[in-house]
Queue: 2 jobs
Job 1
Amino acid sequence: MSDVTDFGAVGDGRADDTEALQHAVDDGDGVLELPRGEYRITRPVVVDLAKSGRTGIHGSGGTAKVVVDGPGPAFDVRGTHAKTADPRGFRPEEWQRERMPTLAGLEIEGRHAEADGVRVEGVMQATLTGLLIREVRTAVHLVNRNRNLLVDHCHLYHNTGVGIHFDEVNLHQACITGSHVSYCRRGGIRIDGGEIRNLQIVGCDVEYNNGRSHPGFPLDEPTAEIYVDVRDGSVREGTISGCTIQATDSPNGANVRMIGGDPDGPEPRNQSMGMWTVSGNLIGSQRVNVHLTAVRGVVLSGNYVYSGHRRNLLVEHSRNVVVGTNCFGHNPDYGTRELCTGLRFEDCLDVVMSGTIVQDCSAGRHTVAGAVPIEREALVELVRCGRANLSGLNVVNGAPNGLLLEDCRDTLVQGCIIVDDRDEPAMEHAVRWRGESAGSRIAGCRLDAGRDGALKIDGDLSFGENVVKP
């Protein structure tokens, strides 16, 4: 074990310890121990694994802090792995010198406008555990090519950029577990382009990642707790599970934002985002809580999604989307200070919604001061969709309508309950259907009549037996 003070580090927060830490990386025994103290650096400490060999950097159980008083990352970890995670693709020198560099039990604090936390490139099995990274731009920056990343038990807090940034990176097998990622201005966990496979985000608290906690920066920059934009890339095989994902409202914000192609581009749209599950999460309080654009193959199940200022769920130009056994609502703790909900699908194909409760707030409108007024025609809206199957839905207290379908073909609405149980009913119609309806049918539903009738249908629509309560 190499004690960095033996290489000249002072750790008093004033002396420049850059050279001492770099010396310890280059010439130590590979296990760097930073005793309790504050180690000020003015440029990145480069961990070149091909030269230094296997490396672990430890902060004495979290008592050591590295203060970044210059541009760039505190630690720039570099490897030479250029193939896949298949064992047949490894060179002997990678196992001997480069595998599993580990940073653990350490605080990194930025004191420069262009300071970052940890940068990782060309590394197999990078392991980041027990880190606190705050007041930097990007806490964890992943670039070019990496494999088998582990981030666990970390606190990535109040950074002007991103908590964990997959930046045009080719990375398969990444696990982010048991971590707090919060108050990062440009997103908590953000993917921009690249090629990502097998990404697991499990058991994390990801919240308040927008500009509201960063005065002086633009508030309307698109951001999200988990932001995926692969119009110029591809993301497959992902899981978001067992997380709390919530925020304050921001103008172009979402809790979960996935963009798999250009909604305004030529057909067919890219749909390079898919094969994802979002399950068992608490998601709420952003402009749009879950916003999916040009995705293919996304499953939402077992979530509680609440208090979206514009929509709880918005899905556009997508296909093969399953929304099952979720509860969409609002937060009853706030009493009469209510934020409404709403689900909308536009230009989608092969949509299944089943076993889901969608319950609006009692007022049918936002009653929180400063909230942007909600604009919608129904609590659940499907517009220009095909092969949609809605079954076993409870749609409660919709306004102005419970369910709107417009120009939807080959669509089934069956076994649903659409009611208004407010003291002063506000729902005009349980179901409003207009435009195209070829191959579509409503059957076996329990519908409240609404103020103007249970059903308002334009065109020729097939009906089975439904129960209408006057």
Job 2
Amino acid sequence: MAFDLSQYANADPHLSSGERLLSVLLGLGLTTVASQPRSNIFASMLALATGSYLAYRGATGYCIVKASLNDRTPRVGPSRS
């Protein structure tokens, strides 16, 4: 199963340059911390997942969470008669 990122390649970035830089730095830092052996494997996996997402967010400039919070598109549902 492939995950297609092409939909985000031409999208307007939701993040400023500062947010992108901070996300990349924090993401790389968290993945580095997660790669160290720990007694709690759950904490390491959580740090790895979070760091990976932050690095992705900073590299692409697109944040799925921020986009969904800023989405002001009206929802069209079934008509109520």
